Amino acid sequence: MAYNSYNNSSNATIELYTLEDAREILKKEARQKRLAKQRREARIKAKRKAKFLYYLKQKALGAGLIGLSILTPIILDGDATASLFLFPLGVYTLFTREKVLY
Fold first, then answer.
1. Is the predicted pLDDT of residue 2 greater than 70, yes or no?
2. Cα angle at 61 between 60 and 64, to 5 degrees?
3. Taking a C-beta distance cutoff of 8 angstroms, is the pair 91, 62 a contact?
4. Are residues 14 and 7 in contact, defined by beta-carbon separation less than 8 angstroms?
5. Is residue 18 part of a domain?
6. 27 within some domain
7. pLDDT 10s digits, 23-82
8. Higher-confidence residue: 6 or 35?
9. Burial class (CB in 10 A: 0-12, 13-18, 19+), 53
10. What is the extent of the structural domain holding 61?
11. Is 56 or 11 the better-scoring residue by pLDDT?
12. For the chain, what is the domain count?
């Protein structure tokens, strides 16, 4: 419960609080700060997880391209032309830290 007090010289209103009111206000502010910190940490965790999944998919694609480059000459009766393109692309995709998939 806030009490109003009037200053005679400037006619300004000053709000005065009881000790219980002040404690409640401080609890609310602490709760808001804690929730803001939790939301910020959740956002950071979600971004980290999305980044991990992105690179996991990229590495899986690289391994798949290497596997496909190995199987291509077997499937195409010895023609390794596609393997010349797939193998280096697969190795690059597998080992790079840059984002290759957009």
1. no
2. 85
3. yes
4. yes
5. yes
6. yes
7. 999 999 999 999 999 999 999 999 999 999 999 999 999 999 999 999 999 999 988 899
8. 35
9. exposed
10. 2-95
11. 56
12. 1
Q: Which amino acid is at 64?
A: G
The answer to whether residue 101 is domain-embedded is no
Residue reference for tokens 């798949």: 64
Give the model's confidence band at 6: pLDDT under 50 very low, under 70 low, under 90 confident, else very high. Answer: low
Checking 51-60 for CB contacts under 8 A at 24+ apart, the result is 54/99, 54/101, 55/97, 57/101, 58/93, 58/94, 58/96, 58/99, 58/100, 58/101, 59/93, 59/94
Whole-angstrom Cα distance, residue 85 to residue 26? 64
Q: Which two tokens stand for residue 2?
A: 């806030």
- Which residue is it, tokens 């690179």? 55
